[in-house]
Amino acid sequence: MVHIVLVGAGNMGFAMLSKWLAGHELTNSVAEPAIPQCSGKPQHTFSVIEPVDTLRQRAAAIGASVYADESQLPEKLAADVVVIATKPPMVSEIAALYASRLSPSGLVISVAAGIATAALEKRVGNSLAVIRCMPNMPASIGEGMMVCCSGSNASDYHRSVAQELLSAIGKVVFINDENLMDAVTAVSGSGPAYLFLFIESLSQAGTAVGLDGDLALELAKQTVYGASKLAIESSDSPTTLRRQVTSPNGTTAAALDVLTRPGSGLPALVHQAVAAAKNRSEKLGKS
What domains can be seen in the chain, in order of their start residue? Predict the structure, then answer.
């Protein structure tokens, strides 16, 4: 039996919980290695801590054991993993509170932005493992991009635990340099908003040239979806794909002449946007 405590059942927490309870394949790798492996399908239990009543009821409705706070957990409960999915200012305090609820080889996974592993380790003690993760909004449909880095106490076993749990909501990669997490936040963490803005802008531009609003939005959304899927599945780079769709002196070339204007075009704006997001992430981490 593997017990996972999820603290926070908001958008990200609920996205993970719903995938876990819907039958995402979790294997015995999330069990303590010293425990003999059992035959058949492994069993996992989930306890959810959520102070907001409506969010707690939502979690209960899909089969989780729910509690308003830590004091309501069964007295002898020893969790294998504590996943913290709250707002960043609460993470360190929560990590300290739940450290006593973890088994000796337990793992704390934080999916909050800006909280360094060293800060979490100070709160949970020297013996427990910590892994920090930066998810993004498409995790809500199982298509997220999760980038993780390990604290000093995390082993390959702990990383495999995080890999397995987080893969329920998308793709998971690990990086060795935690200093890159601010850049990760600026690209994949905030990135969905950039795409949503592009869809808005493309749709509004469509209506400006005469299209019905609903049709323009449908065209914009499907075009971004299809192009993104092609970029993922094709062996060609995005640069090659762009060149393939751009005929000399054609309509696409005319549009790209505008979008790639030096200093004011889309590439320059994206560079400025990512730099601004990275700088803000660094400041939030320090504060």
Answer: 2-183 (3.40.50.720), 191-286 (1.10.3730.10)
